[in-house]
Amino acid sequence: MQTKFDLEKIGKDVVYVKPILAKELPSELREQVGDLETLFAVHNAAGEQLALVADRKLAFHLARENDMRPVRVH
Questions:
Q1: In which element (H, E) is residue 72 found?
Q2: Full-model pTM
Q3: Domains of the chain by residue range
Q4: Sequence-ordered list of residues with C-beta below 8 angstroms from that of 19, at least 6 positions apart, any chain
Protein backbone atom coordinates (compact mmCIF):
# COMPACT_ATOMS: atom_id res chain seq x y z
CA MET A 1 0.00 0.00 0.00
CA GLN A 2 1.27 3.43 -0.89
CA THR A 3 0.09 6.32 1.23
CA LYS A 4 1.02 9.90 0.45
CA PHE A 5 2.13 12.09 3.33
CA ASP A 6 2.62 15.84 3.42
CA LEU A 7 6.01 15.91 5.16
CA GLU A 8 5.78 19.65 5.80
CA LYS A 9 2.77 19.02 8.06
CA ILE A 10 4.79 16.51 10.10
CA GLY A 11 7.55 19.01 10.72
CA LYS A 12 10.11 21.20 9.03
CA ASP A 13 12.93 19.16 10.54
CA VAL A 14 11.82 15.92 8.81
CA VAL A 15 13.97 14.73 5.94
CA TYR A 16 13.61 11.60 3.89
CA VAL A 17 16.33 9.19 2.84
CA LYS A 18 16.00 7.24 -0.37
CA PRO A 19 18.26 4.99 -2.38
CA ILE A 20 19.58 6.25 -5.71
CA LEU A 21 21.10 3.98 -8.34
CA ALA A 22 24.51 5.23 -9.44
CA LYS A 23 23.66 4.47 -13.08
CA GLU A 24 20.83 7.05 -12.86
CA LEU A 25 23.16 9.88 -11.83
CA PRO A 26 24.51 12.46 -14.28
CA SER A 27 27.78 11.34 -15.87
CA GLU A 28 29.94 13.83 -13.92
CA LEU A 29 28.67 12.35 -10.64
CA ARG A 30 28.97 8.74 -11.83
CA GLU A 31 32.69 9.35 -12.37
CA GLN A 32 33.04 10.37 -8.71
CA VAL A 33 31.24 7.42 -7.08
CA GLY A 34 33.64 4.73 -8.22
CA ASP A 35 32.32 1.18 -7.84
CA LEU A 36 29.25 2.10 -5.77
CA GLU A 37 26.02 0.84 -7.32
CA THR A 38 23.64 2.51 -4.84
CA LEU A 39 23.92 5.81 -2.98
CA PHE A 40 21.51 7.46 -0.58
CA ALA A 41 19.98 10.91 -1.00
CA VAL A 42 18.69 13.08 1.84
CA HIS A 43 15.78 15.34 0.83
CA ASN A 44 13.88 18.00 2.74
CA ALA A 45 10.07 18.10 2.94
CA ALA A 46 9.92 20.22 -0.22
CA GLY A 47 11.83 17.55 -2.15
CA GLU A 48 15.11 19.46 -2.40
CA GLN A 49 18.13 17.15 -2.29
CA LEU A 50 20.37 18.15 0.60
CA ALA A 51 23.01 15.43 0.43
CA LEU A 52 24.13 12.37 -1.50
CA VAL A 53 26.17 9.85 0.48
CA ALA A 54 27.65 6.37 0.14
CA ASP A 55 25.42 4.44 2.54
CA ARG A 56 22.11 4.52 4.39
CA LYS A 57 23.63 4.59 7.86
CA LEU A 58 25.71 7.65 6.96
CA ALA A 59 22.64 9.41 5.52
CA PHE A 60 20.72 8.93 8.78
CA HIS A 61 23.73 9.98 10.86
CA LEU A 62 24.23 13.12 8.76
CA ALA A 63 20.58 14.10 9.16
CA ARG A 64 20.61 13.59 12.93
CA GLU A 65 23.88 15.51 13.31
CA ASN A 66 22.12 18.45 11.67
CA ASP A 67 19.10 18.29 14.01
CA MET A 68 16.83 16.70 11.42
CA ARG A 69 14.52 13.70 11.80
CA PRO A 70 15.21 11.22 8.97
CA VAL A 71 12.60 8.82 7.61
CA ARG A 72 13.10 6.12 5.01
CA VAL A 73 11.35 6.28 1.64
CA HIS A 74 11.45 3.46 -0.89
A1: strand 69-72
A2: 0.79
A3: 7-72
A4: 38, 39, 40, 41, 56, 74
